[in-house]
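Box 3.1 A note on notation
Throughout this textbook, protein chains are presented in two layers. The first layer is the amino acid sequence; the second is a token string describing backbone geometry. Keep the layers aligned when reading.
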Amino acid sequence: MRRGRTIQARELGRQLRNRRQEAGMSVDHAAAELSLSVPTIYRYETGTTVPRPPDVKGLCEAYGADEDMTRALVALAREADAPGWWRSYDGAIPRWFDTFVSLESGANHIRAYDSERVLGLLQTRAYAEAMIRALVPPEVDHEGVSKRVEVRMQRQRILERRNPPQLDVILGEATLVRSPGDEIMAEQLSHLDKVSRRPNITLRVLPLNLIHRGLGCGANFMMLDFPTDRRDLGEPPMVYAENLTGAVYLDKPGEIRAYSRVWESLVRDGSSTAESRTIINTYRERYEQ
């Protein structure tokens, strides 16, 4: 066993808990089946300690996990000690094993900045399909595009649940200019106007001619905050950013503070929520002409 609580260790623990629950095994049953103590199973599932790859394989076998999932979890265990995390899309952990979707679904507060595209959680199906089709590698076929669109639509369900997360979004004005088609964009902007009126969603636009601190952070980033449980073992805040070849997960206090300062400056520099709706609807009217 190794010391845990890195992002990867917590995700490994979450996945092991899910596999155990899908197998219909209680913690006591799993501990007896695997000749482990109940506290050990608990430490694995909270990410407090990291099981060795052979132990992960044994857990997966006991839980009836398939070979693909077993390989993914064993690979995750091998990376579980790294501070922060660079997730390469062509690394040992397969791309279908989407750690971020799991983390996103558990957040109670999401702050998102994107200078180039509408945030995935707020995309219409037509806009999502057009963007994904334009950006995926040429070897991805129609079925592959459709699967990616469906995943994006399913992610949006967190905004429809009984206790949805607080979602604060800042979009660069370029997202309103960059259009996959007038009809698609008009529908997308109408959708942004509608969702921005929900009590748990704020939406701001950064004017195109503004020089701001977000320019030093790349095209996008997301900050996730999580609820804590009675033992105060909830996920610590996390920053997520992606690019062409991978994604980075950051959770050091200094990193969180740095991105928090950038976020605060973007809120100050951006248009107000009311002004942003006016900007959005001005563009929408142009696309509808």
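Residues 84-94 have pLDDT under 50 and may be disordered. Strands lie at 2-3, 49-50, 85-88, 109-114, 166-172, 201-206, 220-225, 238-242, 246-250.
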